[in-house]
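The passage that follows is intended for readers who have already worked through the single-chain material. We present the inputs for a multi-component assembly, then the predicted structure in tokenized form, and finally a short commentary. You are encouraged to pause after the input and sketch how you expect the pieces to fit together before reading on.
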Amino acid sequence: MPELPEVETVRRGLEKLVKNKVITNVKVIYPKIIVGDQQDFVQKLSGRKIKSIKRRGKFLLFNFNGGLTMVSHLRMEGKYFIRQADQPLEKHTHVVFSLNDEKQLRYNDVRKFGRMQLVLTANLKQLPGLTKLGPEPLSTNFKQKDFALALAKKNKAIKPALLDQTLVAGLGNIYADEVLWLSRIYPLTKCNQLETNEIKLLHTKIIQELTAAVKAGGTTIRTYTDAFENSGKFQFELHVYGREGQPCQRCGTIIKKIRVAQRGTHFCPQCQQVKL
DNA sequence: TTTCTTGTTTTCAG
DNA sequence: ACTGAAAACAAGAA
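Having made your guess, compare it with the prediction:
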């Protein structure tokens, strides 16, 4: 599922493929993908030039001339790719952006969970979802000290805290499990019970892991591909996610899968011990 | 038919 | 007003 490294890989691909191109027409095939008025979305985007493509957490931000930004979230299975305009539409294609070069940028989403919304760039930060977003883990804004202070204030388990995007942006279920294994932290440990050295390690591992995953082009578990339709390679580097019943690569203990805050959670019962 | 999947938003209790 | 927990919701695959 697209988490920060996958979204960043998509972003980089899109930047190469569609930056500085002009949208000549938009066709919405499945309207629920669009948040807000669909006519308005289509009308305002037509004739716009894609000036840049940024990312914040797991959100893609397409910046257009005229002070407009399209905020796009891929959720579980959203994908962008390019086709010649005369190619037949593939299954699960929900939005088609025709470009000024006989090509089309197509949004495809088997689950139809993804969403896109057109907003004024100036109002971007007020958007629900973006307002509460924590620091970007791969920027200098993600400081160990701030992280420690925020954790000390939280009386909830570290796993759901990593998923809620306020401590740090961009982690999802896969990388949350991975960084906790790397840091030898039991997923149900309360944030305010974490020791200074654990927080330090966790902070470092989040940065290292996401950096490595971006370098590998992300993780392809089921169907993820980037804008060039390439799979990621980081699934070969995973230590716990999807490895229930297999031996821990550090100690040989069988990896367990439990449910934490309604999410599948993988961990090593030996390396990641419950604290008393 | 039931279960499983995840990220975000909403709801509710305290 | 805030926090945390849980439910809701999106929809298809197996």
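Commentary: Residues 32, 75-77, 110-115, 154-156, 160, 261-262 of chain A lie near DNA strand C (CB under 10 Å from a C1'). Residues 196-215 of chain A form the longest helix (20 residues). How closely did your sketch match?
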